[in-house]
What does this fold into?
Amino acid sequence: MDMDTALLLSILAATVQSGTPILYATLGEMFTERSGVLNLGVEGMMIVGAFTAFLATHLTGNPWAGVLAAGLCGGGLSLLHGVVCLIFQGNQVVSGLALTILGLGLADFLGTPYVGITTTGFQAFAVPVLADIPVLGTIFFRHDALVYLSYLLPPLFWLFMARTRPGLALRAAGEHPAAASAAGLSPVRIRWCGIFTGGFLAGLGGAYLSLAYTHLWTNNMTSGRGWIAVALVIFAFWRPGRAVFGAYLFGGVMALQLRLQAMGANLPSSLMLMLPYALTVLVLLASSARGGGRAAPAALGVNIEPEE
Amino acid sequence: MRKSVSAMLLVAAMLLMAALTGCGEDKKPAEAPKAEQTPAAAAPAPAAAPAPAPVKEMQVGFVYVSPVGDVGWSWAHDQARKAIAEMPGVTTSFVESVPEGADAERVIQNMARKGFDIIFTTSFGYMDPTLKVAEQFPNTTFMHCSGYKTAPNMSNYFGRMYQARYLTGMVAGSMTKSNILGYVAAFPIPEVIRGINAYTLGVRAVNPKAEVRVVWTKTWYDPATEKEAAKSLLDVGADVIAQHQDSPGPQEAAQERGVYSVGYNSDMSHFAPKSLLTSAVWNWTPFYKDVVEKVRKGEWKSGSFWPGMEHGIVGIAPYGDMVPQDVRSKVDARKAEIVAGTYKVFSGPVKDQNGVVRVPDGQVLSDQDMLGMTWFVEGVVGSTQ
Amino acid sequence: MFLPRVVKRQEPLQWGSFFIFAVALVVSLGVSCALLAVHGKPPLKALAVLWSGGFGGPFALEDTLLKSIPIFLCSLGVAVSFRMQVWNIGAEGQFALGAVGATWAVLAFPGLPMWAMMPVMFLCAAIAGGLWAAVPAVLRLRFGMNEIISTLMFNYIGILFLQFLVYGVWKDPTSFGFPMTPIFPKAAIIGPIAPATLGRVHWGLAVCVGVAVLLGVFLKRTRLGFELLAGGENPRAARYARMPYNLLVLLVMSLCGALAGFAGCIETSATVNRLQPSIMVGYGYTAIVVAWLSRLRVSSIACFAFLLAGLRVGVEHLQLDLQVPAAFGGILEGMILLSVLAGQFFDRYRFTLKGRS
It folds into this structure.
């Protein structure tokens, strides 16, 4: 294998790694939005997840405890969004923004003493047999447990939505809550589940950053990934398959921007760091121009008025 | 009912978070060993003689750009703060994570208003704010790190870290097999560029065929980005990773791939014991103690201070076990020359990236030119923007 | 069980917004102080420090006033666009572009006298900020692109663009290679109003007052302003009334960008006296909080901008006196916004005990 092929393979493997936290967050937000709730607090839930994952792992020594804590705290923070929007009928856009501000502040405030400590976290291991497949093995099967877990999510997501009764109920709450209500379902209760699951997954995305991507914690370590996830949901037309594509596309750009420098491309670094954000705009523009917005759940962002 | 369940869940989650932080108050890993070099004679030891008169009470404030826990830049300064807090009659305080710019001016001003006697501002971006506040508080002593402006009551100071960088470069250049070295760098400012250049000169002094590749992260402390930057360098064939970053992310990347690394700020060996060759380290304690003593005695004078390895302000951490003896003795010999002042790092001929001679043979680059360095020496692959 | 029932109000609650805010503030401070207590800091002392640091005494008020200038300008524009249901959260990026625009003017025409320099600077800042906001507006109107994402991404891109300039072509050759432009000439520096009595409070305050008056008159007295006020509440109604909704969105976004640009120009010129990356400290995000809290009432925007600026200043004192991390400010802002959002429920609904209907 010559140098260029090896480089290409390592870029693709790095693509999967950088794409994984975004994939978790994107699927989570997609789940929430399919239930009809727009939660822009992904960035906040991710960073809280990243911190609690690190903290719990640091205290227990078990990274899976960290993953669980990240999911619960990410989900716990998202319940605040539920309180504001489902109980108190608050504006979903602003509530999500507030959640981001709060989450970033909370994680930074609580996390300051933990900056500069390393923890055990997840290590990469090769999956037996699969890792030996040429090309694909190197790209997909020499990562850590959280990456492998993320491979299971999109099919599960699809199965749940398309083939199960709860999935149908979730979609009903997002498309037509009044009809769902008439059919004897409780759209508000379903939305609570949607919000919590979304927060849980965003927390896992954060956990990936502090337990697998690195084994360190710092404030702002999500650096906009939560927002990219929100954009990717629109890009993906609320469908999990396209979310995988989108997340890896971003992973690829993030992996590439630093490798371009390493390869000696003589470009100002500010311009290269712009790439993921510029790409978000372009990607969103492309999907909007194709009428992507029409794929949104019909009742997305609309609160369910309390019955009198 | 449903609402109360969710509210309880919420409360439980918040309590969980609070409890986790509450019981996890244990602090940093054990203090890393400092530079192996002890302060030379020039570094004045604080007077150990019995104090005849009651010492003047001193309040010393520090303004940091990042959290003190970062194991990096601010941490190194805070070690010195803790050391001077032990001095009789000295109390210290600090503010961390102060953004450079308008906020910095207010923080420094608050310190001055609260009657601090000496204020250390430890990031380049604090230069103008420090100067502005210094003009308003003529009786307070201001010490600004890494800038170039002074006032009657404001000095600037820095350490000649490039000397230590050069030595670590010699180690790295001796250990590389691929002749590609990676350097994860924060921001393209002279301090960082100077370090990369000195490192490269050290590398090429022992290994003229080697090249140093630079990746800018535009962050001081972002483990994810910095680790990824190190990985990107490893992917293009680098087998030694050096860093001008405050996080140990690059060290982690090197250790995972089983290649060598060079640390910065403090001895980073506990992050990557298997891969760390050595670290270029800061030791601000002797200098800070000296400043406090001088101010107390009224002997302090404004100026620009740029002490080097001979004062112990910079140094290199103990070598990793993998560094062979002949490399150690070669580097130690050069270190002795630098400390003695007989060897200057930027002595000609030095060519830049394009092959243009920047320092002719027989000349030494002036401090002025070093402070404003914006070009890479021959052997560096990367952009200075 | 005495489960309360929700009943819609016929009329909005009297003095509602004031009352809701007061309760929300108390709740937020309570939760934040509980966090402090968990962290082992004395909560009551912290409150006292927060108050005295932000509002207690002339120095504190001076600091707070200075800080509220950029927040106020950013909030005005954001408030107008929120009113229109245009979720422009790009004030941060528009602030950056305003700073860039103003700096371009100074670097391009360094010799201008002050009477010419100031208008040119502000004009360039407004154009740069306005254009930066107009692009997402056009994308939304033409392609239906979600403006929340686009404005947010434009924040990141705008800040990196500012860095690109300052690390590259605009770097001051005499600054030893550090990323900043040369110090502006005297004519381009917005000076203090009255150093003897008002300290560092600069003429940017006058700009705020001017803009506030103009905007107030515009909203109350012009047809277009009326369209803005009416159009926001119900975009569809505005369109039925044959009001040019698309044009309105474009206008509002550009206005918001121009105002944020003003803020960037003032921060650059008055506070830092040069362009450097560190002027970006998140005023644009605080502006979102202020805008939502105050709705579209200029006087409330001023009050809330002052209040949140005071909180930000007070938090710095907390850091100095009690070593409380700076992020405490973010927690406070987030909590206040969340609890106000929840509290506004009582503007529209009331609880009643079961039994009556």
